[in-house]
Design goal:
The chain is an alpha+beta fold. The protein has five helices and eight strands. It has one domain (12-177): Gcn5-related N-acetyltransferase (GNAT) (Aminopeptidase, 3-Layer(aba) Sandwich), CATH 3.40.630. It is globular and about 35 Å long.
Length: 180
């Protein structure tokens, strides 16, 4: 029998908000924001319309041990803001690498939350990775700007299937080297 160590997911603090692990109590707000077509159409993995139980399954995966993805919510309550303003995650890849994914609720767009969240994740490097990757849809240049502002460099074009659009969508892929 192989024992899998339980990895504690840390809280990452920024000046305006904390990136903290998902809690069951976050499910309703995550579901509210993820059910917005504007959010779903800018992610590969959120269907639209959102089927019943999808966010319950997401939260269950996010808090499971062991897990293949660490998920944090952007919790702005320390600056009198929303308890959940968005989500950011690291998918565990092989060779000491991870893939970052994020979305921000439309009410908080243009507030630089995503830029601060990605910068905090890169700076803290909670998985001790040597590389982080990210992919954004080509019709979402704001997310590409978030990545370049965090030091990611463009690698190339590809396409990814988007559940909400029910189509393959052209993407830009980025990476950044980290000091593990």
């Amino acid at each position: 029998m192989q024992m899998t160590p339980i990895r504690t997911q840390q809280v990452i603090e920024t000046e305006r908000f904390d990136l903290r692990p998902v809690r069951r109590s976050d499910q309703a707000l995550i579901e509210l924001y993820a059910s917005d077509a504007r959010v779903a159409h800018n992610t590969s993995g959120i269907p639209h319309p959102l089927p019943p139980g999808a966010m319950e399954a997401f939260v269950t995966r996010a808090i499971a041990e062991p897990r293949e993805e660490d998920v944090w919510v952007m919790d702005c309550s320390k600056s009198a803001g929303a308890e959940v303003a968005g989500v950011i995650s690291l998918i565990h890849l092989d060779r000491n690498q991870s893939e970052v994914g994020f979305w921000v609720a439309p009410a908080f767009w243009n507030s630089h939350l995503a830029t601060e969240a990605v910068n905090a994740l890169v700076h803290d490097n909670p998985l001790g990775n040597i590389d982080m990757f990210a992919t954004v849809f080509q019709d979402n240049p704001a997310s590409a700007k978030v990545l370049t502002n965090a030091g990611f460099v463009y690698l190339g074009d590809a396409e990814t299937y988007c559940l909400a659009r029910d189509a393959a969508v052209p993407t830009w892929t980025y990476s950044t080297k980290l000091s593990a």
